[in-house]
Specification:
Elements (H helix, E strand, L loop, with lengths): L1 H6 L3 H12 L11 E5 L2 E4 L4 E4 L2 H4 L8 H11 L13 H13 L7 E6 L2 H16 L3 E5 L8 H6 L3 H4 L9 E4 L10 H14 L6 E6 L2 E2 L5 E2 L2 H13 L3 E5 L23 E4 L10 E6 H4 L15 H17 L3 H15 L5 E5 L2 E5 L6 H13 L1 E2 L1 E3 L5 E4 L7 H18 L1
Parallel strand pairs: 3-15, 5-6, 5-7, 7-10, 10-11
Antiparallel strand pairs: 1-2, 2-3, 4-12, 8-9, 11-12, 13-14, 14-17, 16-17
Helix pairs in contact: 4-12, 5-12, 9-10, 13-15, 14-15
Bound molecules: pyridoxal-5'-phosphate.
Length: 421
């Protein structure tokens, strides 16, 4: 049906019509119908070319179809596909874990890892590991946090549009403010709220872990100040609470380092990765010191497809290439930041860490940010918005982007900001 429609020049429209008829509306998608993708470019089903500053929501930090990743996938496909790591060992899984352990910024000499399919699944398992290791049930999370859409992670996530109609939520999840300088929440305010929570609301000795994104992603690209992380970890340590860094969005080079916590000098107890780890295939991980990772008994962790061999092959290629592209991240970041400072409407906040950059518009409503994204799309640039109010325009530029594509994309962004008025 679709090839025939394409012959009639109706490919995009045809897919959109079928999508409306056959796919649940709960998955919200803009009207893009992808045909193929390469590096920082996507072509739609009607042959139109786009620059891609969304990267499938931060999942292709090395660009679409990086040749090393594609080769590794082909090689793996020719050997075996699914095995299930609970049925037989295979080397690509073990190798991803070995490399994550070597790259780990977590506390402790001896690190271990375990693999999952999605960020949400990995966050849930980080909580399971923390509970098994501490014998406690409580989970501490932060305002504007996004940790996934499964029931526990949705409880940990803040934003009604994701949550409406899906309760009741999981028990023993406590939320406190996180610093947000642009809207007047200081590190002192956030730490004072945490101290109050432990005085008034919950015995800190019942909390297993605190889960925080070092740069809040869906919440608005808000970097957590190093002094906040230091104050937080000091309090967590005092009460024997584990610190879990959710690096699903910030990890694998997004901020110009392998892990965002490397910018801060803070050592988490557990680190969760996902998104770009699989180079475009679904893979996520939990890493931390061996005694924590080994707290759940054999059989306590796993999953039918978790750590799929093809996704592991793609991850190993990703981790091979990453050190070669990280040195360019600072230059990409400074080009983006300079341009955002020039084009941002008055009263906006330009912020982020390394090339993980965004501009928050002054008004707390989605209209203008949505209009910028729509105007960009009309001009051939794919952009995402984020933030509790949907008023943040964020950029997920691949670290492999050419200077020409970066400048061309930023030109389109500048024109889109002008279009949106
Ligand atoms: C910080 C963070 N954690 C967890 C998740 C959930 O990941 P997934 O969508 O792969 O389940 C996301 C997804 O955007 C995320 O940004």
């Amino acid at each position: 049906m679709i090839p025939q429609m394409r012959a009639q020049g109706l490919a995009g429209e045809g897919v959109l019509a079928s999508r409306a008829r056959f796919v649940a509306r709960g998955v919200a998608t803009p009207p893009l119908v992808v045909d193929r993708a390469e590096a920082a470019r996507i072509w739609d089903a009607d042959g139109r070319e786009y620059l891609d500053f969304a990267g499938g929501i931060g999942c292709v930090n090395l660009g679409h179809r990086h040749p090393a990743i594609v080769d590794a996938i082909h090689e793996q496909v020719d050997r075996y596909l699914h095995q299930c790591f609970m049925v037989g060992n295979y080397e690509p899984y073990v190798e991803v874990c070995r490399r994550l352990d070597e790259l780990s910024p977590c506390r402790g000499a001896e690190q271990k890892s375990v693999l999952f399919n999605s960020g949400a699944e990995a966050v849930e398992n980080a909580v399971k590991i923390a509970r098994a290791a501490t014998g406690r049930g409580g989970v501490l999370v932060f305002e504007r946090g996004f940790h996934g859409r499964t029931l526990l992670t949705l409880t940990m996530t803040e934003k009604v549009v994701y949550k409406a109609g899906f309760g009741p939520f999981a028990p023993e999840v406590y939320r406190v403010p996180a610093p947000y300088a642009f809207r007047g929440v200081t590190t002192g305010d956030a730490l004072a709220a945490l101290d109050r929570l432990f005085k008034a609301e919950v015995d800190p000795r019942s909390i297993a872990c605190a889960v925080l994104e070092p740069v809040q992603g869906e919440g608005g690209f808000i970097p957590m100040p190093a002094e906040f992380l230091a104050g937080l970890v000091e309090r967590l340590d005092a009460h024997g609470i584990l610190f879990v860094a959710d690096e699903v969005q910030t990890g694998v080079g997004r901020t110009g380092r392998t892990w965002a916590v490397e910018h801060t000098g803070i050592e988490p107890d557990l680190l969760v990765a996902g998104k770009s780890l699989g180079g475009g295939l679904p893979l996520a991980s939990v890493t931390g010191r061996a005694e924590l990772l080994d707290a759940p008994a054999p059989g306590g962790l796993g999953g039918t497809f978790s750590g799929n061999p093809v996704a592991c092959a793609a991850a190993n290629a990703t981790l091979d290439v990453l050190p070669d592209v990280l040195p360019r991240a600072d230059a990409i970041a400074s080009t983006i930041r300079t341009r955002l400072e020039r084009v941002a409407p008055n009263g906006s906040d330009i912020r982020g860490l390394g090339p993980m950059l965004a501009m928050e518009l002054p008004e707390q409503k989605p209209d203008r940010a949505g209009a910028i994204a729509a105007a960009a799309f009309a001009r051939g640039l794919i952009l995402l918005t984020c933030g509790l109010y949907g008023n943040v325009v964020r950029l997920h530029v691949p670290l492999t982007i050419s200077d020409e594509d970066l400048e061309a994309g930023l030109d389109l962004l500048e024109e889109a900001v002008g279009d949106a008025g």
